[in-house]
Design goal:
The complex is a heterodimer of chains A (327) and B (255). With 327 residues, chain A is mainly alpha-helical. In chain A, 75% of the residues lie in helices and 0% in strands. Chain A has one domain (2-51, 65-318): ABC transporter involved in vitamin B12 uptake, BtuC, CATH 1.10.3470. In chain A, α4 packs parallel to α6 (135-158). The radius of gyration of chain A is 20 Å and the shape is globular. The two termini of chain A are 22 Å apart. With 255 residues, chain B is of the alpha/beta class. Chain B contains 9 helices and 12 strands. Chain B has helices at 42-49, 72-78, 94-99, 114-126, 142-156, 172-189, 200-206, 224-227, 230-237, and strands at 2-13, 16-27, 31-36, 57-62, 65-66, 79-82, 160-164, 192-196, 209-213, 219-223, 241-246, 249-254. The radius of gyration of chain B is 18 Å and the shape is globular. Classes of the chains: A mainly alpha (327), B alpha/beta (255).
Chain lengths: 327, 255
């Protein structure tokens, strides 16, 4: 039921993203676009919006899934896709490309992805170092590496000429206006689901403690390796496509839990759908609220998500702690 | 029939020897108690026997087959462990938590069915938690949570149960009820128990065999009456004890 509702929500958000904008389209034009009878300008607009909407959908899903996996891996409700420094590495990579004037979206995206991979291997190497890598050690390593990237990013911003700064800041805040490559994001999301869904019941066990999971027949070390690399790659994909879109990865899994989806067999697909919807709506608002000016979508996700999350948290408390006590 | 055995087992933690060349054999229907001071390595030994950490030397046999040769989930259907300390970080209901005990019995894509739900409910009833199914685990008291953990182990239904301080946080009524339930079940069904206990008198009452861990690698084991004497316990705990006799029953307390 939860999944059905969220699937409908995702579809609605998707259609909303296609029809609204500086040129509002009627539903009939959407239909004409589908069956190929739309006039050329409408077709162009639809194509542009379709690409952007697919990117929003992919990024939202990627971030939400990565967040859900990392919360299990670190057994920490405060974990989000950025906590282990993957996005820091991506940002440093992308900003270096922008600073060096390697224009073009591909250069920034490629460098971001490489930076993310570098950070992922660095954190894993340092945390895994002598064979034992508990959640605390991994978290501390990730946080410290992320802080290092943060310093490097500030340095890059400080030495950048003014002409580059606006683009860099938008990238850092998360922005879907310059993106392409929708197929890559969607493929990565599909791959992520293929890896994560068969593990979902094991995640239900692992989230209740590593020793307990081991005693219940979960191959804990192998599962944690898979989780780490899957979550890092998903994050790398999302950050490479759209920069740092905050809030989605942290809050969407909790929203799903508050809506009653605590079983990871439901939580994972539900988080993907809700993350996709949230980012679709946020991006639609980002390009319509102050049109023709565009807002960074990361700003809107936070503005939308904070009140919704706080409302659900309050409701959970009043309902007598049915899951709302300790999100 | 021997359900769990170890041969020549040497276990160390942080450079300290817990046991040296330990031979131990848990037969069907036996209830073992493990006694020792804080830090003697009881939990470490229990985790080693459960296959969660590697031993320095020796081998562990589950149903005559090396523990390491068992596939993970199959092993978990035969061998279960109650952990000493575990708290939930994420929200969940009591029923959801007890159902994870069914994990090793389910195939990858299989969902918990009616039979699993029935086992989970009867496990909850067995620890006096019937009616708690929809409660958030975060709202449970320490004793209720401990009973939930025991119920999860009952739902897992292994033939060998390793229990780390099963009566932690439990009130007197539930201490007796749970230990009676666990030991009766083991003796009737031909299962085996090994539990770490801090209360010598509970061990004397519910266990038929005892394993003493001295903390320097030395161990002592045997039938309850052979092992349980005042000098041995005084040396084990490093303090003077008083022994009180009540018919055939003996009671020990720190002097």
């Amino acid at each position: 039921m939860l999944l059905g509702g969220l699937a409908a929500l995702t579809l609605l958000s998707f259609l909303l993203a296609l029809t609204s904008g500086s040129v509002a389209l009627e539903w009939t034009s959407l239909w004409q676009g589908l069956n190929g009878t739309a006039p050329e300008p409408v077709r162009q607009i639809l194509l542009l919006r379709l690409e952007r909407a697919l990117n929003a959908l992919a990024c939202g899903g990627l971030l939400a899934l990565a967040g859900a996996l990392l919360q299990v891996l670190l057994r920490n409700p405060l974990a989000d896709p950025y906590v282990l420094g993957v996005s820091g590495g991506a940002s440093a990579g992308a900003l270096s490309a922008l600073l060096l004037g390697l224009g073009g979206w591909w250069a920034a995206t490629g460098s971001a992805f490489l930076g993310a991979l570098l950070s992922m291997m660095l954190v894993f190497g340092l945390a895994h170092g002598r064979g034992h890598w508990g959640p605390t050690r991994l978290l501390l390593t990730g946080v410290v590496v992320a802080a290092g990237w943060g310093a490097l990013i500030s340095f890059l911003l400080a030495i950048s000429p003014d002409t580059h700064l606006r683009g860099m800041l938008f990238w850092l805040m998360g922005d879907l206006s310059m993106t392409r490559l929708s197929a890559g994001g969607l493929a990565l999301l599909g791959l992520g689901m293929l890896v994560a869904l068969p593990l979902a019941r094991e995640l239900n066990v692992l989230v209740r403690g590593e020793l307990r999971a081991g005693a219940l027949g979960v191959a804990v070390s192998r599962l944690r390796l898979v989780l780490y690399f899957a979550a890092s790659l998903l994050t790398a994909g999302a950050v490479a496509i759209a920069g740092n879109i905050g809030f989605v990865g942290l809050v969407v899994p909790h929203l799903v839990r508050l809506l009653g989806g605590r079983d990871h067999r439901v939580l994972l697909p539900a988080a993907v759908l809700l993350g996709a919807s949230l980012l679709l709506v946020a991006d639609t608002l980002a390009r319509t609220l102050l049109a023709p000016q565009q807002l960074p979508v990361g700003v809107v996700t936070a503005l939308l998500g904070v009140p919704v999350f706080l409302y659900l948290l309050q409701r959970g408390h009043r309902a007598g702690g049915q899951g709302g006590e300790r999100p | 029939m021997t359900l769990l055995a170890c041969r020549g087992l040497t276990v160390e933690i942080a450079g300290r020897r817990v046991c040296e060349a330990l031979d131990l054999q848990l037969d069907a229907g036996q209830c073992w108690g493990m006694l020792g001071c804080n830090g003697a390595g009881k939990t470490t030994l229990l985790h080693t026997l459960a296959g969660l950490r590697a031993a320095q030397d020796g081998e562990i046999l589950l149903a005559d087959r090396p523990l390491t040769a068992w596939p993970d989930r199959e092993r978990a259907r035969h061998l279960g462990l109650l952990l000493q300390d575990n708290r939930e970080v994420f929200p969940g209901t009591v029923l959801e938590t007890v159902l994870i005990g069914r994990h090793p019995h389910l195939q990858r894509w299989e969902w918990e069915g009616e039979a699993d739900l029935a086992k989970a409910r009867s496990a909850l009833a067995a620890v006096d938690l019937a009616g708690f199914e929809a409660r958030d685990v975060a709202t449970l008291s320490g004793g209720e949570y401990q009973r939930l953990q025991i119920a999860t182990l009952l739902a897992q239904a292994p033939r060998v149960m390793l229990l780390d301080e099963p009566v932690n946080h439990l009130d007197l009524k539930h201490q007796a009820a749970i230990l009676t339930r666990l030991t009766d079940m083991a003796r009737q069904a031909g299962h085996a128990l090994l539990m770490v206990l801090h209360d010598v008198n509970l061990a004397a009452r519910y266990c038929d065999h005892l394993l003493l861990i001295y903390g320097n690698g030395e161990t002592r084991q045997g039938g309850r009456d052979a092992v349980l004497d005042k000098p041995a316990l005084e040396r084990l705990y490093g303090c003077a004890l008083r022994e009180i006799r009540d018919g055939t029953q003996r009671w020990f307390m720190a002097d």
